[in-house]
Design a protein that fits this description.
Pfam families: HisKA_3 (PF07730)
Strand content: 5-15%
Number of helices: 12
Protein name: Signal transduction histidine kinase subgroup 3 dimerisation and phosphoacceptor domain-containing protein
InterPro entries: HATPase_C_sf, Sensor_HK_TwoCompSys, Sig_transdc_His_kin_sub3_dim/P
Distance between the termini: 29 Å
Number of strands: 7
Number of domains: 3
Keywords: Kinase, Membrane, Transferase, Transmembrane, Transmembrane helix, Two-component regulatory system
Helix content: 55-70%
Largest sheet: 5 strands, mixed
Order of helices and strands: HHHHHHHHHHEEHEEHEEE
Organism: Sphaerimonospora thailandensis
Length: 383
C-alpha cells in the first residue's frame, strides 16, 4: 500500500507541476512576443528556479509529509524573488504575486496564510497602477484576479492531497473487507478449540499418569482423547463449510455497499429469484472477490452487477471503469481459484479489459434444477 500511495503522489505531482510550469512560462513568452529577449531570459531563469522549489513544496503537501523546519525561509524566498524583480520586469510580471500567495497558503499556518493572501491581493492594486498605465478599475480587476487565482491554485493542491488520502482509505477498506471474514473465522475456531484442547491435555496427562498403575484405564483415556479429536475435526469441518457456503443475495448487497462506500456508483440488476445452492455458493465467492478487486485495483466511478438466466444458463456480470494499469500480474486477486471453482461446476469464467479503462468479469454456469437444494435470492437493489 505504501508503494501504491507513493506512485499516486508522484502521478499527481507530475500533472500539477506540468500545468503550473506551462502557466508560468507565459511570462517569458510574453516578453519574447514584444521582442525583449533579455527580460525573457531573466524571467525564465527566475521562474524556473522558483518552479523547482515549488515542486518540492507541492510534493511534500500532496504526500502529507509536512514542509520541514525551513518553511518560513522558503516562503520568504518566493516573496523576495517575485517582488524584488518588479523594477526589472514591468507590467508582464504583474500576475506573479499569485505565486507568493499560493506558496503562503501551502507553507504557513492558516491564520498567517490568510493574512498573506489578503496582503498580496491588496498590494496588487498599487503595483498595477505603478508599473503601467492601468485605470483604477483595471488595477482592481488584477487584484481580484490574483486573489482568485491564488485560492484556486492552493485549492487544487489540497484537492490532490484529498484524492491521495481517499485512495489510501479505499485500499484500507478493501483490506478490512477481506480480513473481516478471517477474523470472524479465527474467533469461531478459538472458541471451538479452546475447551477441546484443554480436555485433550487433561486426558493425556491422566493417561500418562495411569500407564504404570492401571493400563486398562489409561487405554480408555487415550480412546477418549481420540474421540475428542475426531469430534473436534468434524466441528472444524462444519465451521469451514459454513464459511465456504455464502448467501449470494447477501454478497450482492455487500458488494454494492462496499463499492459505493469507495465513492463509485453501483447498479445491481437481478433477474432470477431462485438458484441451486452449490451454484449460489460459487457465485457468492465470485461476487465477493470481484468487488474486492474493484476497490483494490481501480478508481471506479461506475460499476454494474448483473445476475440473470441467459439461454438456460446462469450468467453473472461485474463491470467497472477506472481500472488501473499495473505492472505484472495482479497478486492475490483469487481469480485463478475462482476459475477452478467454476470449472468444477462445468461453467466458464472470463476476466479482462473492455477497452479504455474498463474491466469486467463474466461467469456462465449451468442451471441445476435440484428442488431439494434450491435457495431464494434476496438482495437489495442499489444504484
Amino acid at each position: 500500500m505504501a508503494q501504491e500511495s507513493e506512485a499516486q503522489a508522484r502521478w499527481l505531482l507530475t500533472g500539477i507541476v506540468a500545468v503550473t510550469g506551462a502557466l508560468w512560462a507565459l511570462t517569458p513568452v510574453a516578453f519574447l512576443i514584444v521582442d525583449e529577449v533579455g527580460r525573457a531570459l531573466l524571467s525564465g531563469v527566475l521562474l524556473g528556479g522558483l518552479l523547482v522549489v515549488y515542486m518540492r513544496v507541492v510534493g511534500r503537501h500532496i504526500a502529507g509529509t509536512g514542509q520541514g523546519p525551513h518553511r518560513v525561509r522558503t516562503f520568504a524566498l518566493f516573496a523576495v524573488v517575485v517582488y524584488g524583480a518588479f523594477p526589472f520586469m514591468g507590467s508582464a510580471w504583474i500576475y506573479t504575486p499569485l505565486i507568493v500567495a499560493a506558496a503562503g497558503l501551502l507553507l504557513l499556518p492558516l491564520g498567517f496564510a490568510v493574512g498573506v493572501l489578503l496582503a498580496v491581493a491588496v498590494a496588487e492594486f498599487p503595483l498595477a497602477l505603478a508599473v503601467s498605465d492601468h485605470t483604477p478599475e483595471d488595477a482592481l480587476l488584477k487584484s481580484a484576479g490574483v486573489f482568485v487565482a491564488s485560492v484556486v491554485a492552493a485549492g487544487i493542491l489540497h484537492y490532490a492531497r484529498f484524492v491521495r488520502e481517499l485512495r489510501e482509505l479505499r485500499a484500507a477498506l478493501a483490506e478490512m473487507a477481506v480480513d473481516q471474514d478471517r477474523v470472524r473465522m479465527a474467533g469461531e475456531l478459538h472458541d471451538l478449540l479452546g475447551q477441546t484442547l484443554a480436555s485433550i491435555t487433561l486426558k493425556t496427562e491422566l493417561a500418562l499418569a495411569l500407564v504404570d498403575l492401571d493400563r486398562k484405564r489409561a487405554i480408555g483415556e487415550v480412546t477418549g482423547v481420540i474421540a475428542i479429536v475426531n469430534e473436534a475435526r468434524e466441528e472444524i469441518g462444519d465451521v469451514v463449510a459454513a464459511r465456504r457456503s455464502l448467501d449470494v443475495g447477501a454478497e450482492l448487497s455487500a458488494a454494492v455497499a462496499l463499492i459505493e462506500l469507495s465513492g463509485a456508483r453501483c447498479d445491481l440488476r437481478v433477474g432470477i429469484s431462485e438458484i441451486d445452492e452449490e451454484t449460489a455458493d460459487a457465485l457468492g465467492w465470485i461476487v465477493r472477490e470481484a468487488a474486492t478487486n474493484i476497490v483494490r485495483h481501480s478508481d471506479a466511478r461506475h460499476c454494474l452487477i448483473e445476475l440473470d438466466r441467459v439461454d438456460g444458463r446462469i450468467h453473472l456480470l461485474l463491470r467497472n471503469d477506472g481500472a488501473r494499469r499495473e505492472a505484472g500480474p495482479r497478486r492475490g486477486s483469487g481469480l485463478a481459484g475462482l476459475r477452478q471453482r467454476v470449472d468444477r461446476l462445468g461453467g466458464y469464467l472470463h476476466a479482462g479489459g473492455t477497452g479504455g479503462d474498463g474491466f469486467e468479469v463474466r461467469v456462465w454456469l449451468p442451471a441445476v434444477h435440484d428442488l431439494e437444494r434450491v435457495i431464494t435470492i434476496d438482495s437489495c437493489p442499489a444504484g
